[in-house]
Design goal:
alpha+beta; endopeptidase fold (from Nostoc punctiforme); seven-stranded mixed sheet; 21% strand; globular
């Protein structure tokens, strides 16, 4: 795993973390391979989630694939058609105010984007996801793009699943494809 930026180092001190956050952080820093080659790890996620027949190249948007991988290794069932980001609006249960580990679904030009809530500032959500700048990282995404908040179906919700107010540092993502 690539070390977290200092801005998000506090995540490593939370215990317990929501399972989906732990699983996603284990993949932090994985990058898409430029050109016609593929990152073996991303292609492996497709095989492990049973999506290999629909996903053959990391040049295809992979935020939904990443989330399907994270959900499965966390013991959660992804929604039908998980490669389509907007399908994640049917995952888990309806959420209200986002909390650490909630699935956030966003609208973007040409489709959607999906990732996990880390925290927020006054204008943006800080989102841990795949295919953000062609890698697994934390990006700031404008709140007005939010389409749905979905909470994993917890049996025992961890104490760390809370709302976190963060500094408004870093660029705002405008298109995660």
């Amino acid at each position: 795993m690539t070390p977290l930026p200092k801005t998000y180092a506090w995540l490593a001190r939370l215990d317990p973390l929501p399972r989906m956050i732990s699983a996603a952080l284990a993949e932090f820093g994985v990058r898409e391979t430029a050109g016609t080659a593929n990152t073996p790890q991303i292609i492996q996620w497709a095989a492990q989630t049973g999506l290999a027949s629909n996903y053959r190249a990391d040049s295809i948007p992979w935020c939904g694939l990443f989330m399907a991988h994270v959900a499965r290794i966390s013991g959660r069932e992804p929604p039908q058609a998980p490669l389509w980001a907007l399908s994640w609006a049917r995952f888990g249960v309806e959420g209200g105010q986002p909390e650490l580990g909630d699935v956030l679904v966003f609208m973007r030009q040409g489709g959607g984007h999906v990732g996990l809530y880390i925290g927020e500032d006054s204008r943006c959500y800080h989102v841990l996801g795949g295919n953000q700048g062609d890698r697994v990282c934390i990006a700031r995404i404008a709140k007005e793009r939010l389409y749905a908040v979905r909470q994993p179906p917890y049996v025992n919700k961890p104490r760390s699943a809370a709302t976190y107010r963060l500094a408004a540092t870093g660029e705002v993502s405008s298109n995660e494809a």
